[in-house]
Structures are given as C-alpha cells and as structure tokens.
Amino acid sequence: MSFMDRNSFKNIMLLGIVFLSLLGCVRSSKEGKRRIMVSIPPQQEWVKELVRDRFEVDCMIPKGVSPENYDPTTKDLLRLSSSCAYICMGELGFERVWIGRLFKQNTEMKLFYSSQGIDWIDSPSHSEGGKDPHIWTSPKQLSIIMRNTTSFLIQLDSTNADEYRKRLEIILGRIQKLDTMVSQKTMNLTSKSFAIYHPSLTYFARDYGLKQIVLEKEGKEPSALHILNIGEEMKRDSVKVFFIQQEFDDKNAELLCKECHCKIVRINPLNGDWEKEISTICNALQ
Fold first, then answer.
1. Domain range for residue 246?
2. pTM score, two decimals?
3. What is the structure's pLDDT at 198?
4. Do residues 176 and 252 share a domain?
C-alpha cells in the first residue's frame, strides 16, 4: 500500500470511530464488565493478573504480529470503542502512529502511559527521534511499569484499591526474584556480549551490564559490509549466542553463527509468559 493510500485508509477508518464509540458505550453497559485495552500480549497477561475478574482485558496487537508497523482493523476499532481505558507502553511504533489519532475521536476513553519514569534509550532503529520501546524485557523496568499500571487501576476503580495493591506486591516479589536470578547469572559471564537481529534487549543489556550487538541496520536489512563488520565484532567479543525473533529471517544469523562458532537461540519478547521468556534469554547466555 502506497504512503498516500495508507493515509487515506487511516482517515476513512477514523471517521467511523465516533459512531463506533457510541455503540460501544451501550454495549459495555449491557455486558456489565468494563474493558481495558492494552497494546501487547505480555502487557495483557500482567494486567489480567492485577484485575482478575474486575475488568475484561483485551490486546490490540495479535500474537505473532510486530507492533512496529501494525495497522488496526475495523474489528480492532470496534473493540477499542467499547473500552473504558487504554494502557499504552509508550513508544511502540503502532502507538506512535495511531494512539493520538484514535483518542482525538473518542475522548471518553481514559488514556494512560505505563512508562512514566522510565529512563529511555534513544534508538535510530525505531523511527526518527524515537525511543527504544522494549522496556518490558528488563525486570528492573518492568517493576516501574507494574507500579504505574497499578496506580492507574486504582484511579479507575478505587473501590478495589486494596486488591490491586496486594496483587502488585505479589507480582513485584516475582519480578524481584527474576531480577536477582538475572543479576547472579550475568555477573560472571566469560563474555558480556551477545548478538541479536532486532534490538529488543537494549534495556536488558544496559541494566545488567551487557553489550548488545545488533545485526539489523536502522530498522532495515543489513548490507554485506555491515554483516562483515558485525561478524568481526562478534569474534572480538567472543560472542556465544545470537538471539533472533520469530518474525525475522535467520539466514544471515546462521551464516554469522557458523563463522563465529556461536549458537542461535530463538526468542519471543512478545511472549505472554514473560517470566519464562526472560529466564530463557538469561540461561542462553551461560
């Protein structure tokens, strides 16, 4: 779809939001359970853990789909129109393009950014002037996200504030255990560097004293020269593992790993089982 066609498509979709939101208000009251919309599957899982049966928690971006350039469907807009709130991560490509447009047309929904207080990392790979959006891949940043999310839920539903606070403490305890495990396992690594196709572990690397070597070049396929340079850097740093996400081609990664004698480990930062995913990443570094 061309740039003009894509923008025309977006404008047409936005025209229907006001009408859909009116329908959604009626639908939500009939169902009796308010809906909270979130952006990605891991976020959906931890919000569900906090609210239990107090709210329905729906995810905008389907499993297996990249949030970098996702465009919502008419069905997505209908789900959004019947939501009382949207909890954003903050810098996902989808959010940067769509959230402001959607909420200008449906001001009754509460919009909350769960990333308040995050020490952002600039990233040329994630749109011009953007920040690296993958804050949830580091337990240290996840604690901030969880506290922010709980504060918003208490504003949204103050009657059940004590429930949310108690559940938060349980989740923070699990995150602390994960943080301790990662800190211990990364402390004495023979190589503090790892390679990755798309830079989704930037905060993980920073927070635990690691170095992330990225094959992708500013969000694009790497050139032959860039691949050569990455290979040399991997050899210098004695890299043992190359992480690759499921939505990316592993051809260049396989060539590099063969040359540098390191293993490929497939990861999914959008996995709803966030504890298991972080453990997998940490164990692969050993």
1. 189-284
2. 0.86
3. 92
4. no
